[in-house]
Amino acid sequence: MRKKALWLIVAIALPLLALLLIFLAQNIEKYNNLEQMWARNEAFRAFYMLKEFWDEKKVDLKNSTTAHLDVVIDSKQSNEAMDIDTDLLVSTLQKEPFALLNVHNDTRKYALFTLIGSAQAPLYGGKIFFVDEVLAKRFSEFLQGSVQFVPLDASLSLPSSTLFFEDREQRYLTHKSGSFTDIYIPFTASLYVKVTFDRGIFAFMKEDLYKSMAYFISILAIILALFYVLLDRLVLSTIRHISQQIQTLKSSPNNMSLRITCKSNDELGTMVLWINAMLGEIETYQKKELGAKEALLEEERNFLQTIIDSWQHALLVIDHEKILKVNDAFKKIFGSAQERLSTQQEALFAPLLHAQNHETIKISLLERPFFFIINTKPLFQNKRLITLTDVSSFNEQLQTLQKKAMLDPLTSLLNRSGILTLLEEKFHSHVQGLLLFDLDHFKRVNDTYGHPIGDEVLKAFSNVLTLNARGTDVIGRIGGEEFVMILSCETLEQLQHSAEKFRTKVEALSLQGTQGESFSLTVSIGGVFNKMGATFESLYEKADQNLYEAKRKGRNQSVVS
């Protein structure tokens, strides 16, 4: 409540302070503008004085005879004694009627020149004047401040201002130092008229304004503080007392016998009496309704449990890693959760408690794997509802189909897809041998005895490979009468021996035709021994080349490299 009162005080004070700051800024800007106007006025007066001074000197020069001139210069003669730049004088007077030059390199001595001879015999006459204290005093009598003629360093950086004088733009420099302002008016290229005036009156006016504003803000702060104290004593203290008792009621929702006390007889006291009357009515109503609500709540709880237990999927409610409730479907699969946990089998439920939504997990029960799809949904107060969909039978069927898809249906050996899948998972460069088998003239067997006998021949050949292979060897049917075997062997001689063993076993095989007649079968073998840890593709390509070589040499033989 006090914070709200403070915010009220702040809400009143901030607009007032904003208005005061705006007023202060406007008046400071007004004083600054007055000060700038004074400086511009002094600059304008100084330019006017300079114009008057030059007009006077020019008239004086025009009215002078040669005898009254201070300096007469012949451009064809040497003028080193005067230290005057004759070339500059001549070039200036070719463009303008008058020229102002420094004499004897004295920064206080100048001469104003004009052409006094003919163009064929030019002479230049000048009147000398001094830029001294007498001239500065003459300027000071016309201007408001003190005046000096000072040389100004060209590298000195001072703020500049401009004004329009005699239909042209004139530039002057200003410099503030303490309570004084200096105005620099160009007299020559390196000499300036320095006009200094006191701007203390403006500083005094600003200081007086600041003091007035400080007094006003202090009085405003005292008034607002008194207003806050009165508001706190008369209103806020009673409101805080009522608020504290309301918080006590809120923290004890089951104790409806509590009431609010208030000694005030104003509107706040009336409000407290109304609240106490309302609390009494609520207490009476709750006593009547509490019994009926508890009965209804128990009925709804039993109804919901019946619905949950009738759900065919296993359900459980967990709080972090603690199981709170399960349904009958869960108990049929896992048994009672409390019974499991009491025997310290928490590891069984760990995959359930930490599973992500739509994740498939595996749980072993009685040495049998079960697969479940997890569906998790957040509940109130960090609790979660987890639904377990049993997909164990589907997973077994899928594994069976995958297994069948990798086997040759005739010989029960790995088919081409199965071989490639197995090699992708288990093939390593340490596999040392690979044999390719191709039954010789198998098409002739099919053409002579028919495809059923051909199928029996393929079965008999696969039995020869299976019975004479080691447990670590991998056998597969690539397609038709072509078969492949991957062996582990130490030397090329061992691989050659194995290839010959299979060839002789097939050669000794006795088969029967459709009429009971006997016939034999031979096989061509191409093998490759892996010496450098090559890939399966490179081994297969080399073995296929050796198989082709065995056929080219007449079949019923093995070529191993």
The poorly predicted ranges are 337-344
What is the mean pLDDT? 79
Please provide the count of β strands.
21
Give the assembly state of these chains. Answer: single chain
Strand order of the largest sheet: 5-9-8-7-6
Describe the protein in words.
The protein has about 550 residues and is an alpha+beta fold. Helix content is about 50%, strand content about 25%. It is built from 14 helices and 21 strands. The strands form five sheets. Strands 5-9-8-7-6 form a five-stranded antiparallel β-sheet. It has a five-stranded antiparallel β-sheet with strand order 11-10-14-13-12. It has a five-stranded mixed β-sheet with strand order 16-17-15-20-21, sandwiched between helices. Helix 14 links the parallel strand 20 and strand 21 (about 560). The longest helix is centred in the first third of the chain and has 61 residues, at about 1-60. It is flat, with a radius of gyration of 59 Å. The model is unreliable at about 335-345 (pLDDT under 50).
Topology:
Layout: H1 2-62, E1 71-74, H2 86-95, E2 99-102, E3 109-115, E4 123-130, H3 133-142, E5 146-151, E6 160-165, E7 168-177, E8 180-186, E9 191-198, H4 200-251, H5 267-310, E10 314-319, E11 322-326, H6 328-334, H7 337-342, H8 346-354, E12 360-365, E13 368-378, E14 383-390, H9 392-405, H10 416-426, E15 433-439, H11 442-449, H12 451-468, E16 474-479, E17 482-487, H13 492-507, E18 511-512, E19 518-519, E20 523-529, H14 536-552, E21 558-560
Parallel strand pairs: 20-21
Antiparallel strand pairs: 1-4, 2-3, 3-4, 5-9, 6-7, 7-8, 8-9, 10-11, 10-14, 12-13, 13-14, 15-17, 15-20, 16-17, 18-19
Helix pairs in contact: 1-4, 11-12, 12-13
